[in-house]
Amino acid sequence: MMAHLIPGNAARVADVLGGSAILRSRVRSWSDLDRLVRAGLPKRSLQLVARRAVAAGVPSSALVYAIVPSATFKRRTRLSPDESARTERLARVIALAEAVWGDAEAVREFLNRPHPLLEHETPLAVAHTELGARRVENILYAIEHGLPL
């Protein structure tokens, strides 16, 4: 399912990544976002994604360091293309969850609660791979459209 490539969604994902203030570029399309990811996102984007994703009381640095080792993160200003792709993937899931619920706390609750359709893993943990992110996105699309899960 490629429904997440709807044109307006690229701008929502960019907003989760920090918007034009952090990205230093306006994202109007998936091509724009792809170009930024391939060039390497600012490390601040990963910090912002982590803050939006983790449950209350959990340090966002745990998610940051799951994507980029601590020492590497501290000495760089930009993420590698691979790290940027992983960051964008999480931002894409967060943007879709925010579109479905429209409430930051409900989004964090969804992302951090084990889900039966994900073998009782959390959506946040499953979304660390592209296939896992697609599984989470499929659940969100079903919720959004009132389809049975």
Q: How would you characterize this protein structure?
A:
33% of the residues are buried. α1 (7-16) crosses α7 (81-101), α4 packs parallel to α7 and α7 (81-101) packs parallel to α10 (130-144). The chain has helices spanning 7-16, 19-23, 30-39, 43-53, 61-67, 70-75, 81-101, 104-112, 123-126, 130-144. The chain has ten helices and no strands. By secondary structure, it is mainly alpha-helical. The chain has one domain.
Largest sheet descriptor: none
Order of helices and strands: HHHHHHHHHH
CA distance, first residue to last residue: 15 Å
Instruction: State mean pLDDT (0 to 100 scale).
Output: 92
From the structure provided, what is the oligomeric state, counting identical versus distinct chains?
single chain
Shape: globular
SS elements, strand count: 0
